[in-house]
Amino acid sequence: MPPRSHPTARQVRLGTELRKLREAAGLKAREVAAFLNSTSTQMSQVEAGIAGVSNDRIRRLAAYYGCVNEALIEALAAMAGDRTQGWWDEYRGVLPPVNLDLAEAEHHATLLREVLITYVPGLLQTPDYARALFRYMRPELPESELTPRVEFRMGRRSVIEGDSPTPYEAIVHEFALRTRVADRQVSRAQLRQILDQIEQGHVTVRVIPTDQDGFGGAGASMMYMDGPVPQLDTGLREGATDTVFIDAEPQLRTLRTLFHKVEEATLDPTASRDFIHRLSKEL
After folding, report:
1. E strand or H helix at 246, and its extent?
2. Could you tell me the sign of the dihedral formed by the alpha carbons of 196, 165, 243, 7, in that order?
3. Tens-digit pLDDT profile for residues 118-129
4. pTM attached to this predicted model
5. For 147, left (φ over 0), alpha (ψ -120 to 50), or beta?
């Protein structure tokens, strides 16, 4: 199999986890290559996500590394053997790769937790709300590029709307709920969409009220995606110019702590639902 020219974030993550196991075992890449009758270059490609690896080889490597975490080994083997062509692949070459990586990460998550301060989370957005955001943030986009972005964002909602929806916990600031990215009608429909999702039972939305004392988390926007095992959790933070996936445990721990700290500033789920309902009536 030829090396990949553009590995996905999930493929890179698999290689990263294999490198972590090798380093924890105190082994050099050349020692592992000799064990596999391979080369150091091929090992480097595997650990960079550039080259694929079979699930049988994953198990051989785990045994060689002395890894006894069966749940982790099976999760890595499943990653290696996964040949799923997700709906997001239709947008390859149309949208930036990071968009596809996010959709794939969400698809494989067992729990999604998100904090957004300035606007409604993408997984809860209506088409009109998303379109208004894209038009404002990227006013130079022609319709031919705007439409795929809106369609893709709606496609992401499948993880919380499908036959086996993923549990989703969102924290959103009152500021975002009150901001009219388009007009009153779009805002009202957006709030109703959030209420409809809450009623499904697997979506929890908590609101940070503007009069909350002691909230200094204006820059706390983040997403945390639980993996099949804790070692495969993934964090995501968006900056002004880039989106960063996080897999190092110290940074993941910081994100978990941040989520719970922000959570302390929210109304409880029932009060949040009632707040959104009242706001929808005010519009």
Report:
1. strand 243-246
2. negative
3. 999 999 999 999
4. 0.93
5. alpha
